[in-house]
Design a protein that fits this description.
It contains six helices and 13 strands. The protein has 251 residues and is α+β, with helices and mostly antiparallel strands. The longest helix is centred in the C-terminal third of the chain and has 22 residues. The chain is globular. The termini are far apart.
């Protein structure tokens, strides 16, 4: 790794973590790393989400990218983004947070405010980079006023949130556990716990690259696909690559 502003390297829970003062995108920095190595940056100048959407990554948040091994069967790993989400939720629960839910496929919310986001990239065969962003002590709404009342931080939810080093260790430990389970038992073994993360049934509108469908979100299937129950009772499945946007509809 040649990032000029590397400030340290640590070992935690069988991971090697590269610590940077800043990075354009921790996922891009992690792209050249081997399995079970990770990158944490104090801030990102070009943080991003799905479909290249921007992500405010200011000082005080956890901006972490972890490289995990995948098998040769790419289809068996389509559910990895959801498995990463499960690992993050396990980590949040372990530090005492219970009032959260997941919005398919990659947002962790408290009520309707975004606490964390996930982005999985694949830059090399057999490896995936799991990007994890968690609002902790940062102030994203000061950088983008449009985020006011749209985001929430651990500092808003807990009297004493863990520091970023502690949170990194907890997240990586839980991430490794779910990835190892996925490697040995397959993605379906994680499905019961993943499908508990969505909360009560929600009416949603899907943007399928310009084709809009409305129905009730019915969880995910064995390959990580979104299941939508139409008003007529028909259930359809959509892969994450097909769903450009999911909007929850207030009843």
């Amino acid at each position: 790794m040649t990032q000029a502003d590397t400030v340290g390297r640590a070992v935690c829970e069988d991971w090697h973590v590269h610590e940077l003062a800043t990075a354009n995108s921790t996922n891009l920095v992690a792209a050249k790393l081997p399995a079970w190595e990770a990158v944490r940056a104090g801030s990102q100048t070009a943080g991003r989400g799905r479909f290249q959407r921007g992500w405010i990554s200011d000082e005080g948040g956890l901006w972490l990218s972890a490289v995990v091994p995948t098998g040769p069967d790419a289809a068996a790993w389509r559910g990895l983004p959801l498995a990463v989400g499960l690992g993050v939720c396990d980590a949040l629960q372990s530090i005492g947070l219970s009032r959260f839910r997941v919005r398919w496929p990659n947002d962790v919310l408290v009520d309707d405010r975004k606490l964390a986001g996930l982005l999985v990239d694949q830059f090399a065969p057999g490896l995936a980079v799991a990007g994890i962003g968690i609002n902790v002590f940062n102030h994203p709404d000061l950088h983008d006023p449009g985020l006011k009342n749209q985001v929430v931080r651990l500092a808003d939810l807990m009297a004493s949130p863990p520091d970023l080093c502690q949170l990194t260790q907890v997240v990586l430990a839980h991430l490794r556990r779910v990835v190892e389970q996925m490697r040995t038992d397959g993605f379906p073994s994680l499905l019961p716990r993943i499908n508990e993360l969505w909360g009560h049934p929600r009416r949603v509108e899907l943007d399928l690259n310009g084709i809009f469908r409305v129905g009730t979100f019915a969880g995910v299937g064995e390959a990580g696909e979104l299941l939508l129950l139409s008003d007529s009772g028909h259930k359809s499945a959509s892969d994450a690559s097909q769903v450009r946007h999911l909007r929850e509809i207030d009843l």
